[in-house]
Specification:
Blueprint (H helix, E strand, L loop, with lengths): L18 E3 L3 H12 L26 H19 L5 H9 L5 H11 L3 H5 L6 H16 L9 H4 L1 H9 L4 E5 L7 E3 L3 E5 H5 L1 H12 L2
Parallel strand pairs: 1-2, 2-4
Antiparallel strand pairs: 3-4
Helix pairs in contact: 1-2, 8-10
C-alpha cells in the first residue's frame, strides 16, 4: 500500500510502501500441521497455538522426526516470507517447462522450504482444505470497510517511524495472544489480534523502530 501522489491533507508519506501479508501460505500450512497432528516442537521463538485450531488428524508414524524438523522448516519458511518477491520471478516461472528442474528450483526460491518438500503430502488431509477455505471466508468478511479503518492507518504514526528505519513488510499469523518478531532488517511478524488492536500494533511497530 502507498499513496501515489503527495497530498497536503494526506498524512501517509507518498513514498512509503508497506506490504501486508495476511495469508502467508507456507506459514499457515506449518501451523496447521503442528496442531492437527499434535506436534510439540521445541524452540525459543516458536509461535503460540492457533486461535481456531483444526480437529486432530491422528498420530504421525514418525512423530520424533516431524517434531525435530518443524522448527527448522518454520525458520526457513519465515525467512523466505520476509523477502519481497521480484516480479521477474513469476515471469521466469511462467516460461519454465512444467516438471523441469528449472521450474522446481524457481518454485523452491519462491516459496522457500516447505513441509511437502521434507515429508510429502502425507500430513495434508481433506480437513486442511476445509480449514483454509474457512479462513478465506473469515478474512473476506473481516476486511476494513474503508481505508481509514485499516490497521495501518489506525497506527500510522508508529508505522511511519518503523518505515523510516527500514520496515517494508508486515506478516500476520492467526495465533493466540501476542507473538512479535523482527525478521531480517525489513519485516515484522505479528499475530492477527495484534494488528487489529491499535495500541498493540503501535507497540509492535515501536519495537521494530527501536531495535
Amino acid at each position: 500500500m502507498r499513496s501515489t501522489i503527495p497530498m497536503d491533507a494526506n498524512p501517509w508519506p507518498h513514498d512509503m510502501v508497506i506490504s501486508v501479508d495476511d495469508d502467508p501460505h507456507q506459514l499457515l500450512a506449518l501451523l496447521w500441521v503442528r496442531e492437527a497432528w499434535g506436534l510439540r516442537p521445541i524452540g525459543g521463538q516458536l509461535p503460540p497455538g492457533l486461535v481456531d485450531p483444526p480437529a486432530p488428524a491422528g498420530d504421525p508414524e514418525d512423530r520424533d522426526a516431524w517434531e525435530v524438523a518443524w522448527p527448522e522448516v518454520w525458520e526457513g519458511a519465515l525467512a523466505r516470507a520476509a523477502v519481497s518477491v521480484e516480479p521477474s520471478m513469476f515471469e521466469e516461472l511462467a516460461r519454465a517447462t512444467h516438471g523441469s528442474d528449472e521450474r522446481g528450483e524457481l518454485i523452491r526460491q519462491l516459496h522457500g522450504p516447505t513441509w511437502r518438500d521434507r515429508f510429502g503430502d502425507t500430513a495434508f488431509t481433506e480437513d486442511y482444505r476445509a480449514w483454509t477455505e474457512a479462513r478465506f471466508e473469515a478474512r473476506r468478511d473481516d476486511r476494513p470497510r474503508s481505508l481509514a479503518e485499516s490497521p495501518e492507518h489506525q497506527s500510522l504514526d508508529a508505522l511511519i517511524r518503523a518505515w523510516r528505519v527500514g520496515l517494508s513488510k508486515v506478516i500476520t499469523i492467526p495465533c493466540r495472544g501476542e507473538h512479535t518478531r523482527i525478521i531480517g532488517g525489513s519485516a515484522l511478524l505479528i499475530t492477527e489480534s495484534t494488528r487489529k488492536d491499535r495500541d498493540s500494533y503501535a507497540a509492535a511497530l515501536g519495537a521494530f523502530a527501536q531495535r
